Structures
1.
Amino acid sequence: MARKAAIVGVADTLLRDGVLAEDGTVLQIQARAAKAALEEAGLSFDDVDALFAAGAWGIPGPGLFMTTTLAEYLGLRLSYMDGTQIGGSSFESHLSHAVAAIAEGRCEVALILYGSRQRSDASRTLGGRGGAMLNSQFDAPFGLPTPVGAYAMAAMRHMHVNGTTAEQLAEIAVATRKWAALNPAATMRDPLSIAEVLASPMIADPLHLRDCCLVTDGGGAIVVTSLERARDLKKPPVVVAGAAEATSHWAISSMPDLAWLQHAADSGKRAMAMAGVGPGDIDVVEIYDSFTITVLMSLEALGFCGRGEGGAFVQGQRTAPGGDFPLNTNGGGLSYCHPGMYGLFLITEATRQLRGECGSRQVKDAEVALAHGTGGVLSTVASCILTRT
Amino acid sequence: MTYEKPLPVIDGESQPFWQAAREHRLAIMRCRDCGKHFFYPRELCPFCHRAAVEWANASGRGKIYTFTIARRPAGPAFKADAPYVVALVELEEGPRLMTNIVTKEVDRIRIGQAVKAVFDDVTTEVTLVKFAPA
């Protein structure tokens, strides 16, 4: 690879009880996050020549031309733009594409943006969901609650094939809540027990309410540039050492094996090979937790445990603070925030962990991190390996 | 009473499937080159990418590959049905499809259970292919 790329600025929009602490439109949210991330790096909007964005706002309308709308609003002059929309994994994909563009010299400073008013607008609707057309005409008439029903179908199959239990899934929700208790920005910080997860209302069998991510507002920004330029900036650079992505299906009815994430196995393997690391080398792991089952299946596919062994792997609060496998250290989508597309926060948290900025939730001597996003209904994945220089 | 649930936007490619459903047949596609069946209908075979695709009648027999019980409905139109079973049924010809399992006893549904197609004429234009325990 010609030039290495590094993350030099990150920002998360501040929430209060899952709602924007400072009210604003989706454009205002993203402008504030961009400003904060650039200031952290010691860069200005005039330095930005590449923009990456995904979201569920302004559709139909200006959101259809998301990067163009943001460039106009922010007054950016771009030589590179990428509006790849693969759901919650979009931002890992954007980072991957930014690395390639920087390596090739097509851009110098890339800005990755996200903003959502999902909670304030009291809507879980992702916007622009039309009639049951094209391939959705064969699925939509049957009333699968989306996305939870699709993940529930995977969980049901995983239980059938591997004997995974509801208690094992609950372990993940409980451990993630313990991390959230250490993050002042997290939405849900009260202690949670396995019994409480199992006693929470069943939403779509076998997933209970506390197996499901939150519904919040949120936004954030990531600034990426070449490693050589990064060395002169304010924050210690976090190198993007490996990145890859893969797709499996769009609709859950077309997923080849509902108990196994082959695309995550492929993406994880490629990202790790690019970085020259294996699962055992990774100190801190941020895995998209739309639902507890997403995490359990991702752990298997990424090679942290054997196929079908995810349930046993997470037992005994192994992924909680003090356990031997630090996972979703900001409290994740289950307890920190989930504005609809959570993937950007996997990267902001991994970056802060590698910089050693995480206070009481800091993973000691964290040198290698994984941010692994999942989008749609287990549809798409993208994996990024981040390292200290 | 008007039917409030999502209805298919039938197009030129899907029309034969929906026409068959109105006639209480389950139509899937088959590739004459590689011999595999697939669902939903496509211009090219998704396995070998050749264009020698044709319609075929499925037997309507299959097994439940996986399912969920929607305790909370997918919107107001499904509220009266909850809890209801949404399943992926694997047809004996191979393909899987999204469907409902028609049953009053949602808690007795199991993966691997044998099911057979039943046809629900939800409007004068649209018949949905659902399944019931065989």
2.
Amino acid sequence: MSMAAVTDPAAMALKVQALARHLAATRGGATVEIAATPKDEVWRQGRISLHRYRPVAEGQPRLGPVLILHGLIGRQSMTDLEPGRSLVQSLLEAGTDLFVLDWGNATRADRFEDFTDFAEYHLGDAVAALLRASGAAKTALFGICQGGVFAAIHAARHPDTVKGLVLGVTPIDFHADAEGARPGLLNRWVRSLPADLLADLIDDQGNLSGQLTGALFQQLAPARTLAKYTSGLVAMADDAEALDTFLRMEKWLADLPDQPGAAAKQWLIELYLENRLVRGAFTVAGAPVDLSAIACPVLNIYGRADHIIPPACSRALGPILAGRDYQELAVPTGHVGVFVSRRARDTVAPAVTRWLERIG
Amino acid sequence: MAAGAAMPDDDGGMQDVLRQWGEMSRGLLEGGEAAEPLRARCEALFAAWGRFARTWAEAAGAGAPGAGGPFDPAGWMDAGGAGGWGDLWRWFGAAEGGDPWRAERDALRASAEWSAYGRALERYNSVMATAWMKAFGRFAQGLAVGSTAAEETPDWAAMQARWQAAADAELASAQGSEEFLDAQRELIRARLACAALLRKRVEGLAQILGLPSRAEIDSLHETVHRMGRELRALRARLDATGKEPGG
């Protein structure tokens, strides 16, 4: 786009009109669907549910089963944002028996749920339901961000039911970035707050508000955030496909759930602030978590330009599992881009498919 | 001071003030129509009061470096401020007695916390505004350095990308600075203090109206959560022994 095109009032007016028409046609994005790949609920426990995707490949699924689990911060719909850029679709097309765990909407009634509830009980119940539904003896876990921490803890504690572990943008050593040239801004912010203030911040509302989390993410790159909703929108005004993609992403971003207070305190204080997981000092179900007990093959995926979970924080699992079946995959994107960008579609899904083929 | 010893009239102590009161009273009784000595005594009394006030202000200042004097309005408006009146404010505000002014004290505290929140927000905004101004500076500097004849009509998208890169780099640097982190910390603390006072007020109203408070509902949820854990442990034990519940 040239400067002349933008400064020309007539051209600008046409673009704004096109944008307004598209927004009106989609009722401000309300009609734009995300996570539309067909699936069926196979298990539910209160707000938490397990879904199995309907196969799209010919014949019986040849890979898996695989359970995708996101963290409590963003929704699992991110892996199935839109047709053509859906990690879920790619894995189904490769013949994977694919399940996804939905943590639902936590309310104040759930504020006392902690990592023991999520990584041990809820995830354990979901895995048991998956094994019943699929008839398999073990499953692979595909944990994303905080969901990767749940998955890693579960794999370390239950080698009998986990046959493989895929981690996506998952922090293991929360302080690994501290000495680097570019420490993660989010990490730095959390580390600058004393534990009592973090606890008060969460207790203030009972849970860690999704709205607050979203505002923090936006604050990480304020100019980019401003540009996205102004010049960025105008620039794509006459590209309906790009606008739909934008609206889908916004729909996902606007739907950040609240994180139960007890789990949020452990996340921010015991992990971000005190970095207990990598030191073997993080306790789940009354026992310290020993990540070196992970016995299954591991594929660790991270974003080279991830400013939310800096690569060093994810890659810290490598030395812990030295000498084991451990692989890394670096994707040239940021945090969310690992799963929603076009480059990711060409990189992540094929790599996961090859890895699943190998582990059987 | 030994009995009968000469009492200095400029030591800044309360004794000095009281003595001058006594002198004035005696002057009134003995003076009769002699107005001049009485006026002189009154002047001495006010001078003594002034010395006393200065001494107090200096003592308060020594306890809190940078503090204002006893009549400094900052002492009134700032829960963390210093000065003679500030000290009185804290004395009144910190008390948790059974006196009849508890509601008034809560209102004063709320006012002080809101004031502190306003200042914390102002400071935070100031840090951020400075960062944005630096970002504009960095962007302008980049344009000046990077301009060539070929770029006389810069592409809009390229300009946008330059601005975004310059601004995000500057803001990331600013938002990682100790100054920002401190301002952010204080802003969070001040906001939470305000929310806590408001919550206390609302819980008081809920009690008057017979409504359950948040603490009571939280306690209920905690009990349900604990019972869920106990039930799970019980089921696990039963599974381990192969017995049905009640069997």
